[in-house]
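Q: What structure does this chain adopt?
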Amino acid sequence: MVGRPEVLERVPWADPQVWQRANARFPVRVPRGWLDAADPTNPDDPLLRQAIPVAAELQPHPGDRPDPVGDRACSPVPWVVQKHPDRVLLLVTKRCHLYCRYCFRRDHDPGASQDPSAVELERALAWCERSGAQEAILSGGDPLALADPKLLAIGRRLRAQIPVLRVHTRAPITWPQRVSDRLAQGLAELGSTWVVVHCNHPRELTAPVRRALDTLVDAGVPLLNQAVLLRGVNDSADVLTELSQALVRLRVLPYYLHHTDAVPGNAHLRVPAARGLALHRALASRVSGVALPAYVVDLPDGSGKMPVAQAVADGRLGLDAVG
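A:
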């Protein structure tokens, strides 16, 4: 990881005071490889817009929602979220390799543990086992922030009771050296396990990232991608087309394009729903069905994801909505 002094030295436009204030609210952490792939002199660099705090992050916005996707009301026990009877989500950590500035899970209490205690984890696992779910989703934070033995032990326990496991991780993109042959083989041996990665821009697909993705696919682990539509990052039909086509070539299926969740601090990165729909229509005219992600919104009432077009038609999301 790149420390604060190094980032401030390499990124001349980064504001030390903004960094300090933002870090007190939500950690700032930038992997060195991420910074190496960026243009540090350009404040509009799409990689740095996701990673370096700016003054706008500190400004409130009328559309801000502290719990933008309604997780809290759907958490039966700590570290578990269940919005649907057939799926259950287990938050195995709050730690990440890169803390994306648009993240909807910004409730990091600096004085609290970033991982569940042994007692909390056992209670959460027991809930998942008796939940009746057909799919268990490991999320966070980033599940790959855990060491292999702990991650795979959680996976084996859940797979003993639940038919399908998903691991939602940004690590293959932000910290590709985390993906080893041993990890890939361990995930493959769990059986019926999907890895859902998170890549927003084609420049994130560096040579090390491509090797990490190849390692997983070659081991027999199917890969999906979730992207978030972000102003100044990928709100362009050209960028979205390049991203989808690059992912398909790497044997990663574009799965979701998320309407940005209206968490406090990310208003400067949100895209209005009308523009998002226009971009998605343009993308659909350029790529095959295999390369076309669904454009979805995770609604704040906790009811889960739905297509943005349906949410607009139902009056649940305004065309000018930026969250």
